[in-house]
Each structure stands twice: as structure tokens, then as C-alpha cells.
């Protein structure tokens, strides 16, 4: 029987070839009556068309949510979602929050000490005491 | 600002006749990514004299070179160099050993911090890089070490940026969980709570390539005498 290698599933590495934005959908909820939605309603009227035109890869859904505070909710490719309550915020602040959701990776926030994570195996290999030349002491 | 944009426009019109139209049509995104398309041009070339005529009014604007949504005046500027890259004869002889070996690593420096990366690595910078968007391509041009399994090209202290190509794609911006630090003063009940939630830029190394001696010579590399500051290739013990 011939030797068979270990079968490995290719891991997705976004950005090496094609780049796909991780935010796939943005839900915007507002209330017509409540005052905390005033900024959100202005954002929907004046700034959302330009934002949607800039980001054609993001699906945008607008729906009322009566008697509740306005909410921005981003849905990501990895299945997670991020929600931001935007009550009493100005339209410019809501645009900042929308950009934050757009650029986010969708992962849970984590503290990370090492900057580089690699899927590749070590380029130089593992050190071995039996290989290489002898060192004179 | 005005002088930069006019310079860029002039350079853009200069480079137009050089780039072959078929390539720029086929690869609108990658057309300006390679340095060979962005070499410094001698000022006495016939191409420049032909393009020094008021070309902007005659020529229609061509499609932008790297990103279609960025206006031509804001396209990235290709680096201009005063002198051609200088390599020693020993480097030219030993460089094929390094380029022919499979995967490479690079110690790329960003704000004087080294990042040891290979192709396809994910990098989370310890800061938020200003003025970049998700999807942008950044060329890392400062490196101290490039190596393969058995060979290492070391700079003293840094390598010339024309010896290699390393590109990273900006994936987005990430944050860390909010941390609250309690600050106290002596003999006081009051505790001040300092909140911090730093943002990080995420990048993916999309390309890492060491140039071969043929490419270097084709781009106009000059062979020089060996000196202490010239980069050299070391073999793994």
C-alpha cells in the first residue's frame, strides 16, 4: 500500500487572493415616535443613501422598532453579529458607528499579545541536535 | 498639497505611454503594483520630451491604475530613487540559492518594530493605522532579514527595498475588550477608573517575493565592490 499523506483541508485566508469584507448585512432599526431616534431618522433620510452607495457589498435593511431605542446591528460572515444602541446620537456619530461595524472582523473582542498568527509551518524547521556541524566548546 | 498633486499628475502622464495598453486593460488593479512599472526615469529620455508637451488637454483620462474608485490625483505615488540599487558580485552569485528555495520569511519593520511574517500570515498591528480602509494594499518596504530554510539575506541594518516585494492587505479594524484600571491616591477614598479600549488594524500578508539577480540587473542594478554595509547571504549552520 502506498504511503498516503495526511489530508488537509484548505483554510480560508481572506485577502491573500480575493478580499471579502466580513460585514455582510447591516440592520437599522428606528422608531417614528420616540425622541431618541431623532438622529437615526435624520441619518436614514440624508446619509444612508450615500453610505449604501459606497458599500454595495453590504446588504442594508431598515425596519421600524416601535417604542424602543434605535439600534445598528451588523451581521458577519462568521455568523456572529454586533449590535450598537445609537439612542440620542447625532447622524455623524451614527455614521461613525456604521463605519465601525463595516470594518470590524466580526470576531469576539480578544486581548492578543502576539501580533502575528500564522497557518504556515516554520520556514526554517525545528532545531535538531543531530544535524548541522559540530560546535567546538 | 497642490505641488504634490501636480507632480503626481505629471508623473502619471509620463508613465502612460510606457505601460502597455493590453496589460493595463487586463489587469487594472495590479497594473501599478509592480515596481518595474514605476522605475525612476532618466530625465533626458525621448519619452519625456514627447510627453512634456501639454498632454493633459489632448489625452483623455485613462482609468486609474490601482483602485478604480480612487481619483487619479490621489493614486499612490510610485517611489522615486536617486541611484540604482547597488549589489555586490558575491550577492549576485549567492542570491539564486535563496530565491530558488521554497517558502520565505521576512522580518518587516513598521514604525521600527519587526514583524516576522511569511506569506498568508495574519498581522494585528498594535495600533490603528490612519487613513487606510479595508481592502487597501500596503507595500512593506523596510526589512532587515529575508530568509528561506537554509539561507538568510541580512541587511546592515536594513535591506534595500528594491531587493524584494512584500505586500499586505488591510482587512479592517479590530478592538480589544475594554479594560478598567483603578487609580488611587493615598489617604483618599476616591478611586479614579481609567478606561481603555484600543483599536488595531488587521492585515494579511498577500505577497512575499525575493527578486532574482536577473530581475535586479534588468531593473538597472549596479555591481559594486564589497563593503561592510552591503547585504550578504548567510548559510544556516
From TrEMBL, chain A:
Keywords: Mitochondrion, Ribonucleoprotein, Ribosomal protein. It comes from Penicilliopsis zonata CBS 506.65. Residues 32-105 form the Ribosomal protein/NADH dehydrogenase domain. The lineage of its organism: Eukaryota, Fungi, Dikarya, Ascomycota, Pezizomycotina. GO terms for cellular component: mitochondrial large ribosomal subunit. Its main location: mitochondrion. This is Large ribosomal subunit protein mL43. It is found in: Mitochondrion. InterPro entries: Ribosomal_mL43, Ribosomal_mL43/mS25/NADH_DH, Thioredoxin-like_sf. Belongs to the mitochondrion-specific ribosomal protein mL43 family. GO terms for biological process: mitochondrial translation. One of its GO terms (molecular function) is structural constituent of ribosome.
Automatic annotation (TrEMBL), chain B:
Belongs to the bacterial ribosomal protein bL21 family. It comes from Penicilliopsis zonata CBS 506.65. This is Large ribosomal subunit protein bL21m. It comes from the Eukaryota. Residues 34-80 are annotated as: Disordered. One of its GO terms (cellular component) is mitochondrial large ribosomal subunit. GO terms for molecular function: structural constituent of ribosome. Residues 35-46 have a biased composition (Low complexity).
Amino acid at each position: 500500500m502506498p504511503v498516503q499523506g495526511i489530508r488537509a483541508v484548505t483554510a480560508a485566508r481572506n485577502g491573500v487572493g480575493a478580499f471579502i469584507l466580513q460585514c455582510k448585512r447591516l440592520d437599522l432599526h428606528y422608531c417614528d415616535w420616540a425622541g431618541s431616534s431623532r438622529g437615526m431618522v435624520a441619518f436614514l433620510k440624508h446619509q444612508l443613501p450615500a453610505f449604501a452607495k459606497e458599500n454595495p457589498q453590504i446588504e442594508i435593511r431598515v425596519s421600524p422598532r416601535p417604542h424602543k431605542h434605535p439600534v445598528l446591528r451588523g451581521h458577519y460572515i462568521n455568523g456572529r453579529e454586533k449590535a450598537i444602541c445609537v439612542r440620542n446620537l447625532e447622524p455623524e456619530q451614527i455614521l461613525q458607528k456604521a463605519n465601525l461595524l463595516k470594518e470590524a472582523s466580526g470576531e469576539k473582542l480578544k486581548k492578543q499579545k502576539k501580533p502575528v498568527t500564522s497557518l504556515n509551518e516554520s520556514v526554517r524547521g525545528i532545531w535538531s541536535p543531530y544535524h548541522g556541524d559540530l560546535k567546538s566548546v | 498639497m497642490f505641488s504634490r498633486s501636480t507632480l503626481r499628475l505629471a508623473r502619471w502622464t509620463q508613465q502612460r505611454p510606457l505601460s502597455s495598453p493590453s496589460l493595463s486593460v487586463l489587469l487594472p488593479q495590479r497594473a501599478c503594483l509592480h515596481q518595474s512599472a514605476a522605475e525612476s526615469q532618466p530625465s533626458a529620455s525621448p519619452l519625456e520630451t514627447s510627453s512634456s508637451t501639454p498632454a493633459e488637454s489632448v489625452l483623455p483620462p485613462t482609468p486609474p491604475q490601482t483602485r478604480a474608485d480612487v481619483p487619479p490625483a490621489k493614486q499612490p505615488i510610485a517611489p522615486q530613487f536617486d541611484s540604482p540599487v547597488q549589489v555586490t558580485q558575491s550577492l549576485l552569485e549567492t542570491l539564486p540559492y535563496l530565491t530558488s528555495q521554497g517558502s520565505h520569511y521576512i522580518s518587516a519593520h513598521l514604525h521600527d518594530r519587526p514583524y516576522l511574517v511569511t506569506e498568508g500570515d495574519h498581522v494585528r498591528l498594535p495600533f490603528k493605522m490612519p487613513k487606510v480602509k479595508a481592502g487597501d494594499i500596503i507595500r512593506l518596504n523596510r526589512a532587515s532579514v529575508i530568509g528561506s530554510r537554509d539561507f538568510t539575506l541580512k541587511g546592515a541594518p536594513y535591506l534595500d527595498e528594491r531587493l524584494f516585494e512584500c505586500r499586505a492587505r488591510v482587512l479592517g479594524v479590530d478592538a480589544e475588550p475594554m479594560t478598567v484600571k483603578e487609580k488611587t491616591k493615598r489617604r483618599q477614598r476616591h478611586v479614579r477608573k481609567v478606561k481603555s479600549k484600543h483599536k488595531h488594524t488587521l492585515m494579511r500578508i498577500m505577497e512575499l517575493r525575493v527578486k532574482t539577480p536577473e530581475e535586479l540587473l534588468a531593473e538597472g542594478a549596479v555591481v559594486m565592490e564589497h563593503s561592510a554595509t552591503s547585504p550578504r547571504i548567510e548559510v544556516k549552520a
